[in-house]
C-alpha cells in the first residue's frame, strides 16, 4: 500500500468494489504484532509455510460452497451448519454459513486484528504474532480457555489472508510444529487443519440499503489430549455459532461509533473539553453495554497514529481542537461509516472530509 487512502463516495456503497484491500488496516509501526522477526525467503521453512497456506486457501475455497460430501447438521439462530467426514481423520470438519450486515472490510478487521477477537470469542485468552513471512502470512500462537476440568488449549498456526479476483476475502489457519514456541504449563496444544473464513459481499439490503456479506466458517479442530473423538465432534458442531457473536460485536461497535460521532459533532466548540468528551464517550459505551477499550483504543489510534500512547486521549482531543479532532476521526472511521450506511451521518462526514482543516 502506498500513499494516502482516497476519500470514498459515502453516499453510496458498491459491494463489487474491493479496492479497499489495498488500503486495509495494517496497524502502526509501534503495534507489537508489527515488531516481530521476519522469516527470510532463503530459510528452508519459508516455501513450506507458503505452500501450506496456499493449499489451505485452495481447500477452503473448494469447500465453502460445495455440496458433495457435506451433510446438513442443523440450523440455529440463522446459521446453517453442515459437517464433512475425512477418511484419514476421525475429527469432522464443520461449516457454518450466515449473513452479517457489514462490509467485507469491517468483517476483515474484526477477524484478523488480534485485539478485537476477545469481543466476539469468549474463550479467547490472547494471541501473538511470532514470525512474519509476508504482510499476509504469519506464524501465530493463540490461547483459549476451556471449561473445568478440561485444560486450556493453545495453537501454533500459520495464518494467511487474501482477496480473490472476484472479491472473496479468505482467511486460513493450519497448525505447524515449532520447537521455539513451547507449550506453557496448564495448556494442551491443539491442532487445526485448513480452518478459516470466507467473506462474500452480497447486494446491499433492499430495505435498509446497508451493506451485507455472506460469511462461511470452516473448522476442523482437534483439541488433542484425552477427550474422546465423539465428544470432540459433538462440541465442534457449535463452533460455527461464533458467526453470531461476531455479528453482535460488529453491530455493537458500529452503534457506539455512530453515537460518538453524532454527539461529538453536536458539541459546541466552546464546550470541547476533555471532561465533557469523556462523559460523552462513556455514555455512548454505557448506552450500548460496550466496553471502554472498544472505543478508547481505536480513537487513540486514528487520532494519534499510535497504539501505545501515555497521554490521555480526551486531553489530546481537547488540545488539537474540535475541527482537527473530528477530521481525523471521520477519516479514521471511513470503513465503519460505509458499513453503518446512515445517509445523514455520512453526508456530515463527506462535508467535513471535503473541507480539511487549514494548518
Automatic annotation (TrEMBL):
<dbReference type="InterPro" id="IPR023393">
    <property type="entry name" value="START-like_dom_sf"/>
</dbReference>
<dbReference type="GO" id="GO:0005737">
    <property type="term" value="C:cytoplasm"/>
</dbReference>
<dbReference type="InterPro" id="IPR051213">
    <property type="entry name" value="START_lipid_transfer"/>
</dbReference>
<feature type="domain" description="START">
    <location>
        <begin position="67"/>
        <end position="234"/>
    </location>
</feature>
<dbReference type="InterPro" id="IPR008925">
    <property type="entry name" value="aa_tRNA-synth_I_cd-bd_sf"/>
</dbReference>
<dbReference type="GO" id="GO:0006412">
    <property type="term" value="P:translation"/>
</dbReference>
<dbReference type="InterPro" id="IPR020751">
    <property type="entry name" value="aa-tRNA-synth_I_codon-bd_sub2"/>
</dbReference>
<keyword id="KW-0436">Ligase</keyword>
<keyword id="KW-0648">Protein biosynthesis</keyword>
<dbReference type="Pfam" id="PF19269">
    <property type="entry name" value="Anticodon_2"/>
</dbReference>
<dbReference type="GO" id="GO:0008289">
    <property type="term" value="F:lipid binding"/>
</dbReference>
<dbReference type="GO" id="GO:0004812">
    <property type="term" value="F:aminoacyl-tRNA ligase activity"/>
</dbReference>
<dbReference type="GO" id="GO:0000049">
    <property type="term" value="F:tRNA binding"/>
</dbReference>
<dbReference type="InterPro" id="IPR045462">
    <property type="entry name" value="aa-tRNA-synth_I_cd-bd"/>
</dbReference>
<dbReference type="GO" id="GO:0005524">
    <property type="term" value="F:ATP binding"/>
</dbReference>
<keyword id="KW-0030">Aminoacyl-tRNA synthetase</keyword>
<keyword id="KW-0547">Nucleotide-binding</keyword>
<keyword id="KW-0067">ATP-binding</keyword>
<dbReference type="InterPro" id="IPR002913">
    <property type="entry name" value="START_lipid-bd_dom"/>
</dbReference>
<dbReference type="Pfam" id="PF01852">
    <property type="entry name" value="START"/>
</dbReference>
<protein>
    <submittedName>
        <fullName>START domain containing protein</fullName>
    </submittedName>
</protein>
Amino acid at each position: 500500500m502506498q500513499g494516502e487512502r482516497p476519500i470514498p463516495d459515502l453516499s453510496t456503497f458498491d459491494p463489487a468494489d474491493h479496492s479497499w484491500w489495498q488500503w486495509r488496516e495494517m496497524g502502526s509501526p509501534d503495534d507489537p504484532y508489527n515488531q516481530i522477526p521476519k522469516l527470510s525467503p532463503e530459510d528452508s521453512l519459508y516455501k513450506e509455510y507458503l505452500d501450506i497456506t496456499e493449499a489451505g486457501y485452495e481447500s477452503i475455497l473448494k469447500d465453502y460452497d460445495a455440496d458433495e460430501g457435506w451433510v446438513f447438521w442443523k440450523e440455529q439462530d440463522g446459521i446453517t451448519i453442515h459437517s464433512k467426514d475425512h477418511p484419514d481423520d476421525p475429527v469432522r470438519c464443520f461449516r457454518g454459513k450466515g449473513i452479517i450486515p457489514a462490509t467485507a472490510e469491517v468483517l476483515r478487521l474484526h477477524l484478523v486484528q488480534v485485539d478485537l477477537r476477545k469481543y466476539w470469542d469468549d474463550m479467547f485468552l490472547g494471541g501473538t504474532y511470532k514470525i512474519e513471512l509476508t504482510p499476509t502470512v504469519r506464524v501465530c500462537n493463540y490461547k483459549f480457555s476451556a471449561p473445568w476440568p478440561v485444560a486450556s488449549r493453545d495453537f501454533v498456526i500459520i495464518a494467511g489472508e487474501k482477496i480473490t479476483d472476484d472479491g472473496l476475502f479468505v482467511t486460513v489457519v493450519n497448525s505447524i510444529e515449532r520447537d521455539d514456541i513451547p507449550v506453557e504449563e496448564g495448556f494442551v496444544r491443539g491442532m487445526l487443519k485448513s480452518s478459516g473464513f470466507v467473506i462474500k459481499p452480497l447486494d446491499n439490503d433492499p430495505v435498509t440499503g446497508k451493506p451485507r456479506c455472506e460469511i462461511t466458517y470452516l473448522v476442523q479442530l482437534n483439541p488433542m489430549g484425552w477427550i474422546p473423538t465423539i465428544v470432540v465432534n459433538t462440541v465442534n458442531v457449535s463452533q460455527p455459532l461464533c458467526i453470531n457473536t461476531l455479528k453482535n460485536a460488529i453491530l455493537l461497535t458500529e452503534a457506539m461509533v455512530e453515537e460518538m460521532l453524532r454527539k461529538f459533532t453536536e458539541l459546541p466548540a466552546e464546550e470541547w473539553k476533555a471532561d465533557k468528551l469523556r462523559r460523552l464517550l462513556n455514555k455512548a459505551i454505557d448506552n450500548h453495554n460496550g466496553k471502554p477499550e472498544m472505543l478508547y483504543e481505536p480513537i487513540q489510534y486514528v487520532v494519534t497514529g499510535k497504539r501505545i500512547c501515555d497521554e490521555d486521549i480526551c486531553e489530546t482531543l481537547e488540545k488539537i481542537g474540535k475541527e482537527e479532532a473530528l477530521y481525523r476521526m471521520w477519516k479514521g472511521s471511513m470503513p465503519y461509516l460505509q458499513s453503518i450506511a446512515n445517509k445523514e451521518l455520512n453526508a456530515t462526514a463527506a462535508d467535513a472530509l471535503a473541507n480539511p482543516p487549514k494548518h
